[in-house]
Design a protein that fits this description.
Blueprint (H helix, E strand, L loop, with lengths): L1 H12 L7 H4 L4 H8 L11 H10 L7 H4 L6 H6 L9 H4 L4 H4 L2 E5 L6 E4 L9 E4 L11 E4 L2 H4 L3 H4 L1 E3 L5 E4 L8 H7 L2 E3 L12 E3 L9 H4 L3 E8 L2 E8 L12 E10 L2 E5 L12 E8 L2 E3 L7 E4 L7 E7 L8 E9 L20 E9 L1
Parallel strand pairs: 3-4
Antiparallel strand pairs: 1-2, 5-6, 7-8, 9-10, 10-16, 11-12, 11-13, 11-17, 13-14, 13-15, 17-18
Length: 367
Amino acid sequence: MKILFFVLILIISVQAKYLDNYSCQECHEKIYEEFQSSYHAKSYFTDELHRKIADAVDTKTYVCATCHMPMANNLKELINGQARPDKNNKTHTDGVSCFFCHTIAFVKKSHQFNINIKARQAKGYKPTLYGRLEKPDDSDKHSSVKNPVYAKNVCIGCHSHKLNDNNVTIFQAIEKDQDSIECIKCHMPKVDGGVEKMDKRTRGEHVSHKFPGIHDKIFRATGVDINITTQEKKLLITLKNKMAHPIIIQPARVKFLKIKILRKDKIIWQNYQKEPSEDKQAYFAYRFTKNGKKITIPATATKGYVNNLNAKTTKVLSYNIPKLQKGDIIIVQFYVRLAKHDCASAIELDDKSIMDSLLIKEVKKSI
């Protein structure tokens, strides 16, 4: 009996064969195409900003693998410095892989960062994949099970928060009382078509696996409302964050307002002259210091600061302006830089366009 018990423990403790992203394409062709265009499909080798930041933190260990290379078959070795990312290893190049996301058993909430607990798979048997479908279909490659974690917690394993070793918050997207449903509503919208190439249950729709976000020009414009009002020599800009997370999440990014008043096609007033950081109230970004000195890479920061606009909240920005005349035009533009210009002082990016200003939304008001 003791021997049988030992054998059973051994079986359930061994991971089943890894199903790489491409193997999903055979049955889930449309979802595979969606996923390949998403940033979940990016890896250490294809996301230059992430790779350069990770290497700036430490060229020996790859602690970011927990979320950025989570299905690595040598995850512990990557984290402790006994191995480096390998471009010939599919568990490294698949990014946040299909197999990873669909084998999360539950998420353990923790102080420094949440931990994804993977389902144990029996060696020699088909792996079991989890999701939200009612009556999911099995295949010759895997079994399928509906798991409530995919409504409540599946996103918060990686997208909740991250504190560095000095207990400084360097990433914050989800509050303690939030769940994954709000993430899914926006970032996995329902689209036409079943989940499988052979749609056995004639499902009319599925949730998109493109995971639209800040890189999508149309999608990013939906997250904020901007309203312009004027008083005597006063300009009021009301910025409403409609998203379920703060305006700024990632420490490398910055979002800011560019405001101009035109009179006969000439600028008579603007909220900054050279750099948007001059207007501190409209410059949403993280700042970090180490022992009182400014740093860009937050891994070793001892203090952190952020000008932010929390989820589903509104902020009114007030400016003193010249007296307006009939025919004047006020233009308000909201921008994002995926990498702050400060990043150039810490890492050398080959793709300089990542520091360009991308328009989120523009509104105008004529007097």
